Amino acid sequence: MKIAVASEGKMTAGHFGHCQNFNIYEVENKEIVKEESIPNPGHKPGFLPNYLYELGVNVIISGGMGGGAIDIFNERGIEVIVGAAGEAKGNVLSYLDGKLKSTGSVCHEHQHADECGKH
Q1: DSSP secondary structure string, 92-114?
Q2: Residue 39 and residue 46: Cα distance in Å, rounded?
Q3: What is the mean pLDDT of residues 84-88?
Q4: Is the pLDDT of residue 16 over 90?
Q5: SS3 91
Q6: pTM: predicted TM-score of the whole model, two decimal places
Q7: What is the CATH number that goes with domain 2-107?
Q8: How far is CA 50 from CA 45, 72, 90, in A?
Q9: List of residues 6+ apart from 76 with CB closer than 8 A
Q10: Is 87 strand, coil or helix?
């Protein structure tokens, strides 16, 4: 399983599309076996969900995310967890323990992207 966290360095980003990087964790038997950080290749409508799908991501964790991105992830069978905050790796460990649940925080207006994650 691959879990991606939209991040600002090692911290979970408030808004998926405008994050600095994606921290990607490979998990086997609920244990992280590999982690890497890749830069955000750029925010274009519909691009990032397909990009992460092509990387083999099964779960995406973020502070906030637009409805269009959520729809594409859902179409690709990728689980979406929004409303997360704090350290990226800590959120992955909480998810693996069944303690991290999505709040359903959907960003509706991109001009207010700086407010995402505060819903």
Answers
A1: HHHHHTT-------EE--GGGGG
A2: 17
A3: 97
A4: yes
A5: helix
A6: 0.89
A7: 3.30.420.130
A8: 10, 8, 25
A9: 49, 50, 53
A10: strand
Q: Is the pLDDT of residue 111 over 50?
A: no
pLDDT over 90 (residue 50)? yes
Mean pLDDT of the chain: 90
**DSSP secondary structure string for all residues of 22-37:** EEEEEEETTEEEEEEE
Euclidean distance between CA atoms 32 and 110, whole angstroms:
33
Measured distance CA(59)–CA(61) in Å, rounded: 7
Structure-token pair, residue 101: 């649940």
Give the residue extent of every domain in the chain.
2-107
**The pLDDT of residue 105:** 66
Structure tokens at 87: 């350290």
In terms of C-beta density within 10 A (0-12 exposed, 13-18 middle, 19 or more buried), how is residue 94 classed? middle
The string of pLDDT tens digits covering residues 29-44 is 999 999 999 999 998 8
**Element (DSSP H or E) covering residue 72:** helix 67-75
Q: Residue 108 — very low, low, confident or very high, per pLDDT cuts 50/70/90?
A: low
Residue pointed to by tokens 């959120």: 91
Q: Reduced to 3 states, what is the DSSP secondary structure of residue 65? A: strand
